[in-house]
Design brief:
Blueprint (H helix, E strand, L loop, with lengths): L5 H24 L4 H4 L10 H19 L17 H17 L3 H5 L1 E5 L4 E5 H25 L10 H8 L2
Antiparallel strand pairs: 1-2
């Protein structure tokens, strides 16, 4: 069996990490009163719920880019508020499965992305890294917002913990 190149390994591992970390976060949030998730807290978005919706929208967009869908911008529509937790999990799992099925050529293939805000032609793995890093940034915000709301038992979602404990 041929061993994967480092970039293929890292890309697939990072997609798996994203699913694992989002699952940890969602599982934690499911134990909290839903009204707390809708309370306003000063941050990039006014509530945990709206932050999660943004995370899901962005993740859907980047997966559409990776799938080479013609109109990835349509993926920016907001999910229904009542199913954002379930959608986040399902979509993160779908993204990990899609990335897991990619070969080295697809992972390294440049993808042209043209939006009203930017234009780029980067290898596919760069867009996956963007999606995961974006989620990591906002997971940190969700935890901080939660602390301001009295939620002090957030899970550890560091990449290191995934590599040591999450793959078991």
């Amino acid at each position: 069996m041929q061993q994967e190149s480092p970039i293929v390994y890292v890309t697939k591992n990072y997609a798996g990490y994203n699913y694992w970390a989002n699952k940890k976060l969602v599982d934690w949030l499911r134990t909290k009163p839903q009204d707390v998730l809708h309370k306003e807290v000063p941050s990039s978005f006014p509530s945990i719920w709206q932050t999660l919706q943004h995370m899901l929208q962005a993740q859907r967009y980047w997966l559409a880019v990776l799938r080479r869908e013609k109109d990835a911008r349509s993926e920016l529509s907001a999910p229904a508020p009542d199913d954002v937790l379930e959608s986040m999990l399902a979509h993160s799992k779908e993204m990990a499965a899609f990335i897991s099925g990619m070969g080295e050529a697809a992972i390294n293939e440049p993808l042209l992305v043209v939006t009203p805000r930017f234009e780029s032609n980067l290898p596919a793995f760069e867009y996956l890294m963007q999606a995961v890093n974006h989620n990591t940034y906002h997971r940190g915000q969700v935890v901080t917002m939660g602390r301001h709301l009295g939620l002090t038992d957030a899970p550890m979602t560091d990449h290191y913990y995934f590599n040591v404990f999450g793959k078991q």
